[in-house]
Design a protein that fits this description.
Ferritin, 0% strand, 76% helix, 5 helices, 157 residues
Length: 157
């Protein structure tokens, strides 16, 4: 493979890629959980939540590709297994939650985990002058904060 000379030191690229693999693990784990909840939601808000969860998991499915491609552009390997994701993510698996309210709460918590982990990567990205990754993080944080707000609003009485 040719040397990568994009103006970001190798050590910084490796550290940023590791942080992006964390984001990838979180995003994929949240995707899987959201998809499961889409299939299994019941109750008076079934149609609303079924459609909302579909929109959310569809967006997350697209996001994992963007994140993984940025990891590759930095010269690292993008993680691609459940076991690798499980080692990195703090997002719990769907363990048979049946209440729509509990599903909303768990997805809200997952969104906030993604937000915190993406935000934690910023200092390194800024130090390395990695504008492309900073842009990716800004977009992801903005989207996850909006989704978290919408989920939080559903939990208000």
């Amino acid at each position: 493979m040719n040397q990568i000379n994009i103006g970001i030191e190798q050590a910084d690229r490796e550290a940023i890629a590791a942080g992006l693999n964390q984001l990838l693990a979180d995003t994929y784990s949240l995707y899987l959980k959201t998809h499961s909840f889409h299939w299994n939601v019941t109750g008076p808000m079934f149609n609303t939540l079924h459609l909302m969860f579909e929109g959310q998991y569809t967006e997350l499915a697209l996001a994992v590709d963007v994140i993984a491609e940025r990891v590759r552009a930095l010269g690292a390997r993008a993680l691609g297994s459940y076991s690798a994701y499980a080692k990195l993510t703090q997002i719990s698996e769907d363990n048979g939650v049946s209440s729509a309210k509990a599903m909303i709460q768990e997805l809200l918590e997952g969104q906030e985990i993604v937000i915190r982990n993406a935000r934690a990567l910023y200092p390194l990205v800024q130090k390395a002058d990695d504008e492309a990754t900073a842009d990716l993080l800004t977009q992801r944080i903005q989207l996850h904060e909006k989704t978290a707000w919408m989920l939080r609003s559903l939990l208000e009485e």
